[in-house]
Amino acid sequence: MSVAMLEHPDPWSEDEYFALGETTNRIELIDGSLWVSPAPSKRRQHIALLLAMGLYAAAERVGLLVLQDVNLRLVSGRILQPDIVVADTDDAGGTVEAAEARLVVEVVSPGNAGTDRLLKPQLYAAAGIGWYLRVEQPDDSVELRLERLAGAHYVPAMVAGPGQALVCEEPFPFELEIASLLERCRPG
Description:
The chain has five helices and 13 strands. With 188 residues, the chain is α+β, with helices and mostly antiparallel strands. The chain has a six-stranded mixed sheet. Strands 2-1-5-4-7 form a five-stranded mixed sheet, covered by helices on one side. It is globular, with a radius of gyration of 16 Å.
């Protein structure tokens, strides 16, 4: 990231945001401010990859696309990069519109816990995205918390922890087995 980027005196526009090009940092645009974070931990990336693989076939069966670290435009001037987006879109371009998103997934880590538990769900809900899957990592385990949009906020729909599977019919039929996810995430 250049020094000029840090000295930007005015709010950032979408054009300026996209002019940054691809970077190794995760950069999100929220109401004229850039939120910059380094790449997620290896474990967090591994969990996100396994979840994306677990969702892929089920999403494809109903004509949806599973994308990782894609630009998700919630409204003009508000672009986030969830760990996973399942969307009714194609693979052209670099941005998914909120109206195309069926499910957003965030894998929580200690450095972004408040953002993933509080801020991002509020922003996703305000954009009208129907489903939010938050992945917690208590004690090196994995817990999946699926939430559905009810009015202006998300409410719990299902929770699955070790020894359980998350079996859903909405927003599309899929099943994620926690045991196989944990087995594949163990060092060795």
